[in-house]
């Protein structure tokens, strides 16, 4: 079994991921209210999962700092809980790139994107997993990969299954995946 640290384990996604991983027999270190990532905490872990947010900080500064800390930690694998708006609607065109995307949400989305760019420029084994649409619905115990689709729903429980399945059987690397409940 893997040794996993979950940053943001007191939030809805992080809590479900930590609970699911622990139920499968993984050794889980939970880091709750601290919105950042401390590399020393992630050191010596097989996997570092980041489900953190700090709405009081500049998103680009925060998410690049988080990604740098994850890379510096030396964790064997990094999985980041991403956001729907960075998924592509066509090759090279993300939801956030749409001309009618609300301007007030762009800084937060582009802050997430800046964090992904830090991961992409590194030699780390990383993956960003995002809901393909909106969180909600009734857990199905199943999930599927999906393109960006605002009508797709994903429960936190089904999302946690997808994340822990990827920990158990690493299949995707250096990319962002959209996940929907099946």
TrEMBL record:
SUPFAM superfamilies: NAD(P)-binding Rossmann-fold domains. InterPro entries: NAD(P)-bd_dom_sf, Polyketide_Oxido-like. It comes from the Bacteria. One of its GO terms (molecular function) is oxidoreductase activity, acting on the CH-NH group of donors, NAD or NADP as acceptor. Gene3D superfamilies: NAD(P)-binding Rossmann-like Domain (3.40.50.720). This is NAD(P)-binding domain-containing protein. It comes from Lentzea albida.
């Amino acid at each position: 079994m893997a040794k996993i640290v979950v940053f943001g384990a007191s939030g809805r996604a992080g809590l479900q991921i930590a609970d699911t991983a622990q139920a499968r027999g993984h050794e889980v270190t939970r880091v709750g209210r601290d919105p950042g990532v401390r590399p020393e905490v992630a050191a010596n872990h097989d996997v570092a999962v980041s489900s953190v947010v700090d709405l009081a900080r500049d998103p680009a500064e925060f998410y690049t700092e988080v990604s740098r800390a994850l890379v510096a930690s030396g964790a064997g694998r990094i999985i980041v809980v991403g956001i729907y708006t960075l998924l592509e609607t066509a090759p090279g065109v993300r939801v956030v790139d749409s001309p009618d995307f609300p301007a007030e949400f762009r800084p937060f989305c582009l802050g997430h994107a800046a964090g992904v760019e830090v991961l992409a420029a590194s030699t780390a084994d990383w993956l960003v997993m995002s809901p393909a649409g909106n969180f909600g619905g009734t857990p199905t115990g199943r999930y599927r990969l999906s393109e960006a689709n605002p009508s797709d729903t994903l429960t936190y429980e089904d999302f946690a299954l997808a994340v822990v399945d990827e920990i158990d059987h690493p299949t995707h690397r250096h990319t962002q995946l959209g996940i929907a409940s099946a």
